[in-house]
Design goal:
Two copies of one chain form a homodimer.
Chain A lengths: L2 H8 L9 E3 L6 E3 L5 E11 L10 H18 L3 E11 L4 H17 L3 E9 L3 E11 L14 E5 L4 H9 L7 H12 L5 H6 L6 E5 L3 H12 L2 E5 L7 H5 L6 H10 L5 E6 L4 H11 L3 E8 L3 E5 L20
Parallel strand pairs in A: 4-5, 9-12
Antiparallel strand pairs in A: 1-2, 3-6, 4-6, 7-10, 7-11, 8-10, 9-11
Chain lengths: 324, 324
Amino acid sequence: MNEFALIARHFARTPRRADVRVGIGDDGAVVAFETDMECVASVDMLVEGRHFAAGTDPQRLGHKTLAVNLSDLAAMGARPRYALLAGALPTSDSGWLSAFMRGFDALAARYGVELIGGDTTRGPLTLCVTVLGDVPAGRAITRAGAKPGDDVYVSGTLGDAALALAVRLGHIDVDAAGLRVAGERLDAPQPRIALGIALRGIASAAIDVSDGLTGDLGHILEASQVGAALDLAALPASDALRARTHGSGRDGALACLLAGGDDYELCFTASPALRTRIGAVAQDLSLALTRIGAITASPGLVVRDETGAAMSALPRGFDHFAAA
Amino acid sequence: MNEFALIARHFARTPRRADVRVGIGDDGAVVAFETDMECVASVDMLVEGRHFAAGTDPQRLGHKTLAVNLSDLAAMGARPRYALLAGALPTSDSGWLSAFMRGFDALAARYGVELIGGDTTRGPLTLCVTVLGDVPAGRAITRAGAKPGDDVYVSGTLGDAALALAVRLGHIDVDAAGLRVAGERLDAPQPRIALGIALRGIASAAIDVSDGLTGDLGHILEASQVGAALDLAALPASDALRARTHGSGRDGALACLLAGGDDYELCFTASPALRTRIGAVAQDLSLALTRIGAITASPGLVVRDETGAAMSALPRGFDHFAAA
């Protein structure tokens, strides 16, 4: 199958919405943003052997490739609108591509994302997605607005994806039920789109937890020129991970909690005056929003353990170019 | 150097324009499109060993990586506004990246393109650029508007990039002056931005010649459900390439002219009633716009040689997934 037949078969589609003036199949797509909305854009590249293992189920990979991008839009408080997908593929394997696009399209449909552009070429398996969303003018949530005294929150639970990865790599063992929950988090992360939108006007800063809590919160602290103090005991964890925070597996469990990547929860800050509103958001969305600490005027991140003592060495977040 | 230091050093910059509300360094960028403008988006992925050779000069590669995308915007009649750059890099080679970004940034500055987002990861050298442009609502030029009787035009000259590549691969030999001209076309293509904008309201259809004239014009014919007849003798060629269309090198020269990729000229169609206006555009831009044939109601592409006979076998355009 040649490149054009490949595109026609797997990527071409009639746009579902009229704001897509020109969809896939021209030199560029043409879309119309609504008046008084700003455009939010983000790009992510996933490389086989680095972000996902060779042989990863293509449908789940299609889901995850889009999900990690939508998570960035969620962290900005944006509504997802459009995606462009570029892929280097080792072969034109039609079955693989069909499955990949099933996963991609199902998630896109759930959030009203129109695939408007793409590029395919031969090469080592690499996927690059650009997503465009919108947000009312001036209402995007950035990393730069956290203020001393603000509460620090995180959605859902932390560390499950890292736990699943550790199990798969044979580093640790958990029971089947725990692995199922954690594996779902690793393979099929759910971008917190509704939460991001609900946090407009509430969160003073937000980021998605893709590289681990301490590292990602660190970006908020740096951008906002503040510090934070977190309570280890307050960090939300699944039962499987919570069970491991006591005893011999503690170090690994804490690494998952504090520095585990790939969770795609939102970490955000907000004035203590907004606790009731945040409680209402949690209830509306049936999503745990846990207060895990507070922003401080003095720089740096302090995590207090169960005894109230500051932990001396925090596990590090993931860095693609750090020395191994 | 870690990923964040790498981004800070090479990609972070203060936006030059106020329409960039949030630039690089957050989960997403936020930009404001002007009222009554539509957004035009395009993505391209370049893979080492496929789109460029290992060891390619990084500054020229930085230029070309952006240029091929801007060429897509030109073909839509769009004004370039923003770019997002994702790259898988085998190492964090600061010198290479500096040079790459010099080439990228110089071209971006020339066309008022703001780099608003990026992603870096380790992997086989792969570059993915998404560009966003704008166009007055309803004025984008697509591939679908060509009508029987329309003239077919191409800008500049065709086949030089393919000629340079053939020389470098040792397939053919040209004199030093010819190679310099052709090599510049291959290494530092100039996107026809001003032409695309000038063709709004004039061109009935347009495409950029990235994969070769016959293949790319074929996309216009397919999208517009028409055919075309071209005159081989009318195709604009550099002196070096023109000289080869006679004698033993003729087949190779015709392949460059008709199917050579990487020229990034625009091929467009327009009503014969607009010839004077098109002549004025050519004069304004000091750019040759050559009438090479006409659109026909009957489907298919016919190229008539110097004797007026239809050529029986047309060289093929480039296809990333065609069997070698």
